[in-house]
Amino acid sequence: MNNEHHQSMQMRIRGLELLSAEGWELEPAGGSTGEAYIARHGKKKIFVKRNSSPFLAVLSAEGIVPKLLWTKRLENGDVITAQEWVNGRELSTRDMNQPKVAQMLSKIHLSSELLDMFKRMGNEPLTPTIIVEEFYEKLRQIESPPPLFMETVEYLERYEQEVYYPQPVVCHGDMNHNNWMINQQNQLFLIDWDAAIVADPALDLGFVLYEYIPRNNWEKWLEAYGISYSFYLRRRMHWYVVQDTLRNAIYYWMNQSNQKQEWQMTKLGRLLHEERI
Questions:
Q1: Are 96 and 179 found together in one domain?
Q2: Tens digits of residue pLDDT in 51-67
Q3: C or N terminus of the chain, fewer CB within 10 Å?
Q4: For 245-254, which contacts have Cβ atoms below 8 Å and span 24 or more sequence positions?
């Protein structure tokens, strides 16, 4: 570990000394934010995170995330939360086809408690119009963007009114199979709520179906979720998958990650071609 990385980690752990003083041993739990830790004390083991989702208590109460044990506010204003450790595993890509995944996602999207809390926090719905405006602004900041980027934004703009959905819900925003956990009692959890947003449920549904579910099983999976497959739903899901792919392609383009950017560009071209068929 180089000095810079070590100092960065020490800065993040600073403020968690109260756990160390109580005999807990901390180690990074991974993740993109670097704010999550595994805390051990003898045979006890908990998951600790700094500045986790502000509606973690609601998620815990509804059994969507592992049980919230306690919350503590530090002198610097940061909030530390501790949750039960899940003795289990992440879902595999094949596991995402299970009805229980669809049923859990439906439970989340139908939660009025989550939606009310999000609204009280001042979160406005992410609409297609806002997304298109954000992309145009982003492209203005890029010198000589690939023509496919503008072609994609024009596609998104062309259908933004057609895909508008008037009943937004709380979406998780990161349906990667690694964020789904199942414990030894076969209880399912959806973790890592840092990307949660109020939006069309098709934002979550599109990622799951396009990424993990065979096309010939879409209707059955959606039946478990609680809705029927329709052209309107397919259009919305496709639109949100396109915008997500464009977002990733722009990110990799700006960070000069050539291999990942090329893969996203290929995927983007395929999605746009699919829409013309």
A1: yes
A2: 777 788 899 999 999 99
A3: C
A4: 245/271, 246/135, 246/149, 246/152, 246/153, 246/156, 249/148, 249/149, 250/138, 250/139, 250/142, 250/145, 250/149, 253/142, 253/145, 253/146, 253/149, 254/142
Q: How many CA atoms lie within 13 A of 246 on its CB side?
A: 27
Number of domains within the chain: 2
Closest of 134, 138, 174 to residue 157, by C-alpha: 134
Q: Is the same domain home to 203 and 99? A: yes
Q: What is the pTM of this model?
A: 0.87
Catalytic residue list: 174
Do residues 151 and 50 share a domain? no
Alpha helices per DSSP H over 14-126:
17-21, 56-61, 99-109, 112-120
What pLDDT digit, counting tens, does each position of 74-105 carry? Answer: 777 778 888 888 889 999 999 999 999 999 99
- Same domain assignment for residues 207 and 153: yes
Pairing type for strands 188-190 and 180-183 reads antiparallel
Q: Of 37, 65, 85, which residue is a domain's last?
A: 85
Question: Does residue 143 sit in the same domain as residue 167?
Answer: yes
Distance CA 52, CA 47 (A): 11
